[in-house]
Structure formats: structure tokens, C-alpha cells
Amino acid sequence: MIDIKNSGSIGILDPPPLRNRGIKKVPFVEFYNNRIQGVVSSGSSLERVYVCVLDFNTNTFTCHTNNNRPCGGLRGSMCSHLNSLLSNAKTVDAIRGLDVINKTYSLVQDGSARYSEVFTRFQEKLRFLELNDMQDESIPESRWFYTKLEVKK
Amino acid sequence: MSDKNVNFYDLTGDLDKAIKLTQDLSFLFYNGFSKLIQKEKDVLNQLAKGFVNSPLREIVPQGIDKLQKSDFHKDNFTALVLAITSIHGSIHDALYAKAEEVLEKKITFLTQESDTTFEEHTEEMSTLLSNIQNWLIDIAIGGFSDLNKESIQSFETVLQTVEDNKKLKRLGVILRGLSNEIILVRSDTKEKEHSIQVRWMDLWCKAYLLTLKKQIPSKVREVNGNLKLLGLQPYVHRNFLTIVFNGILENKKEKIYVEIEKSKFIIDLVPIEEFWFQLKQENQNLIDGLLKSNIIKVSNGVLQQNGNLVLTDYKLTTETFDILDVVQKSADKNPLLISKIQAIDRHPIHFKLPCIIKLEDIKNQTVKVGDKEIPIRFELQPTKRVQRPVTKNNMLMELRFDNGWFFKPLTSIGASNVFLGLISEKISTENPIYSILKERSSKILRDKK
């Protein structure tokens, strides 16, 4: 705790930790319900992304484009997109990332994994960025929210 | 609870009891109207008796009586919401009266031209709002304690429709914030944390209120003059980042205490520093004016009834001002005018009063006022020190109220960077995750449509 009188100053926050990962290559990666899932850029088109899922519930992996086509790089083994996803997952959560890497050897290819659900989760997050373009309006109630929730999390 | 009925329409002398009542009501909302126990019925009865001399004297007792008999028609919840909103407004007003008494200081309010008016929604909008109203009623019946992630997520499609509608932005923000808090807190062992519950009922009421009728924007004042910024406060929520500039708008006629609010939705894919950076870039002139104490010339600004100043045409000048001098002179010559928030939006949390605090009255993060010690609170817990004090002997703070009185330092500025600790320009410019995802989102979401 600071002593305002003695310091003659007031306090501030430490900067939050930087999430230093390859956002261009892998815009979205998350650990979710015992899965590593996310979205990997195609490299050739901004409109096209690959939706990747490593599912440790079913011990399967899959990679599809957002236009619902299976990745051509999948030939029974993990493609470059899945490997990119995995290496980014380690930067998001090093401990969990290292924990699962040994388990990836036992995974098998499966075309029916939840890529549409994953892509929807990505789209829902992007939606908020679009909402920022909406007309600026004062929302006094935004100050009613419990600001320390994020800190506690 | 005292047998004496409290007149909630006029709270003079009954402030503590009214605050206690809102807290009891919050617990009731937590448990739900479908399983009222006698103690909760007593709370509702106390509420019902509190509007004898008010325009709500008939509908509130009737509505509350029906709710107690498990008649959950929307008209009865409407009566309840109006009653709670009225209490919030009365507490808000009573806080100013109390502050005048404690600080021995006359507070002068800005004269408002009109109050809120309403009109009916279009049919399409009414259908959407009716769905939201039903969802809110279901929540009240079952109680917040009955909610889980799945029941909140079942509302996601409707919520997204609200968010995508520019006219419903305020409602969308409230519902999103409330939903997120419930999802987050319901998975936490400390879910019964008191302050959270209090806000949930308040947010629920405000959301419900916004579904009733279309609020016609009140007549706003067009203002011109010199804007002298005194401070900046950040508010960080799971999905929102808001900064509020505090300042005084001064012209030949008056000196008005104003706020300028800027918000952004945030997502966990982007480090929060980048959103700070975006806000900083978009408001660089205001930040420079705050950091360097430079006057900002405002033309054709719009002053809303909640004291929020919307800037349309403004220019940063090289003319400087002294922060404390501005407030002190205001007190000595022309009174500093505080905006009187329209009745429907009054809430204890919006009580605010700028005060100059002598450093000698500050000890152990409290301020001595008469024989009382009022704590100093920050929205975000500080861990470092800012380089410079405001002056050698004084600090500028806002007296606020949120489950108790507290002082909030206004002048959270450093010598060179207003976001000290909250933003690093180096990090933000080298890792423009925000812009990459923004570009991606416009392509992908357009594709989706």
C-alpha cells in the first residue's frame, strides 16, 4: 500500500503481461473443454483461414478452411496449420502447452471435429471489434460494472 | 428492521434505511421471486409502503402485492422496477444533501430545461424488447442463484441482435456486462460477494427499464467555452474499457463540472495495452490538455443531462491553467455547477463532488472530514507511485458513494504519460494485434453476411 501523504503522489497499475505470440499466423488459439483449438491464417488470402482442433477427449485432430473444405495438408498426420496452432498454444500457456505436446502423438485424424463451433467462437470475438465502430454514446451504467472481476480472474 | 415506514420518495433523514432496503432487495433478487421467504416478504412490504405521497402510490403496492402472490405479470415487475429506480434516485439526491451537511458546502446544480420523455417503440422493436423483458422476468423469478453459463448462453442470439442495433447500444452494453458478470461469478466460490449482488439488481432494473418505452433524448445544452481537464479515470471490465475525463467547462456565464466518456469493447485476443493505445490515439488532444494543463477551446459541444460532454469541435491551445486554482476560484466566485442527472438515470454511484483535500488531512489512505475518516479508493488498485503530486499541499479528489463514502483521486497523471503503467507505447506499436484482427474481422464477418 502506498502512503499518499508521505509520497505526495498517487498510484497506478503495473502493465499487464504482454502476450507475445504470432498473431498474424495464428489469430486465435485457446484451451477449451480439453481441446486446443483456434484459427490459422492461410498465408495467401485474408478472407481464408484454417480452423484447427486438437481434441483430447476423442484423441483426434482436424483442420478445415472457413469455407468448410478439409485441409489438403492432412494426410493422416498433423498439417503445418495444426503445428502452428500447437506452438502458439505453448506461448499462451506454456505449462498446459508442454503438458499436451506429448499427447499429440496418439491423436488420429477426424473430419467430424467441431470446426464450425470453433470458427463461431472466433467470429464472436471479432464481432466486438466491429461494434467499436458504432456511434459513440455515453453509457453511464458501464461504471456500475464490477471492475475488479477481471483482476480477480 | 424498524417498524417505522420510510418515505422513499423523500429520503430526508432516512438515507441509511433506504440503502439497507436496496441491499435487502438485492438479496431477494439473488434468491428469486419464486421462493420468497417471510423475511423477503417483509422487505417487499416495506417497499410497498414507501410511496404514500408519490405518483407511484397506487401501482407500487398493487404490483408488489401481486408479486408476493406469485402473479408474475410484466406489469407487476414494471411497478417494482419503477419503485427501485425511484429509490435509487432518492438516495442519489439525499447523498448531495448529506454532502452539503458534512462538508458545510453549498452545492449548486445546473438548471435543466426538461426531463425525460417517452414514446412507444416500433412493432419490430417492441417484439425484440419484449423477448428481453421476458428473459429478465425469468431471471427475477428464478433468482440470480439459479443461473448458470448455459442459461445465460441460451440468450446469446437475442443479445447479439440487441448489440448489432445502434439504437440499443446502451441496453446491449448493460445486458452484456450483466451476463458476463453472472457467468464469471457463478463459477467462483465467492459468488455471494455483496457488492456484486447489489450491482446485479441495479443492472437488471436498468435493463428492464430500457425495454419499456423509447426514451426520447432530453433537450441538450449546446455549450462553448474553455475546457480545463482535471483528471482521468479508467474503468476496466471483462468486455469494456472506459476512460472518463473530468474537467471544468468555463465561459462568461458559468463553470460546469463535466465528464467526457470514451469506451471500447475489448476482447481477450488483444492485450489490453492496445485498447488503451487506441483510446489514447483517438483522444490525444484531450490527453495533452490534461498532461500539460492546456486549455481546450470547445465550440458547439453538447452537454447531456448526465453531465457528459460530447465534443464535436474543439482545439487544444497553448494557454495553460492551474488545476487547483480553477477549482478554488470556482468556489470563491462563481459556484461550480454540478449537472443534475435526469431522474430516470439517478443512482447513488453517479453521485460525485470535486473537493480539494489538504495533504495534512490524508493518513493511511483515508481523508479526515470533521470527526470522520473517509477511505480513498481507486477503481484499479495501485501498485506504483506517480512521479509528481498535484501541489505541495493539496490534492484534487472526487467525493463518491458506492456502498459507503469514499474519495477518489482525480489527478491520476504523471509527468510524461497519462496512462503510466497502463500502457506502453513501445509494446503497442510493435504488436498491432488490434489492427491485424480488425482487418481480419472486417473481411471474415463481411464474408459471413
Description:
- The complex is a heterodimer of chains A (153) and B (449).
- Chain A has 153 residues and is of the alpha+beta class.
- Helices cover 30% and strands 19% of the residues of chain A.
- In chain A, helix 2 (80-92) packs across helix 3.
- Chain B is of the alpha+beta class.
- Chain B has 2 domains: 15-103 and 118-215, no CATH class; 221-409, no CATH class.
- Helices cover 42% and strands 23% of the residues of chain B.
- Chain B has helices spanning 15-31, 38-48, 59-68, 74-103, 123-142, 149-153, 156-163, 169-186, 194-212, 272-282, 284-291, 323-332, 425-430, 433-448; strands spanning 108-110, 117-119, 214-216, 221-236, 240-250, 255-265, 294-303, 309-310, 313-320, 336-339, 352-358, 362-363, 366-369, 372-375, 384-385, 394-401, 405-409.
- In chain B, the strands form 4 sheets. In chain B, strands 1, 4, 5, 6, 7, 8, 9 and 10 form an 8-stranded mixed β-sheet that branches. A 3-stranded antiparallel β-sheet of chain B has the order 11-16-17, with helices on one face.
- In chain B, strand 16 and strand 17 (405-409) form a beta hairpin.
- Chain B is globular.
- Mean pLDDT of chain B is 81; it is low at 381-390 and 412-428.
- Strand 1 (11-12) of chain A pairs antiparallel with strand 15 (384-385) of chain B, so a sheet runs across the interface.
Assembly state (oligomeric): heterodimer
How many discrete structural domains of chain B?
2
Helix content of chain B: 40-55%
> In percent terms, what proportion of residues of chain A is strand?
15-25%
Strand coverage percent of chain B: 15-25%
Question: What is the residue-mean pLDDT of chain B, rounded to a whole number?
Answer: 81
What is the strand arrangement across the widest sheet of chain A? Answer: 2-3-4-5-6
Q: Mean pLDDT of chain A, as a whole number?
A: 73
Structural class of chain B: alpha+beta
Strand elements of chain B, count: 17
Strand/helix succession of chain A = HEEEEEHHEHH
Distance between the termini of chain A: 21 Å
With helices defined by DSSP (H or I, 4 residues minimum), what is the helix count of chain B? 14
Low-confidence segments of chain B, given as residue ranges, are 381-390, 412-428
* Main interface by residue count: A-B, 56 and 93 residues
Radius of gyration of chain B: 23 Å
The geometry of chain B reads as globular
Task: Characterize the main sheet of chain A.
Answer: 5 strands, mixed
Q: How many distinct helices of chain A?
A: 5
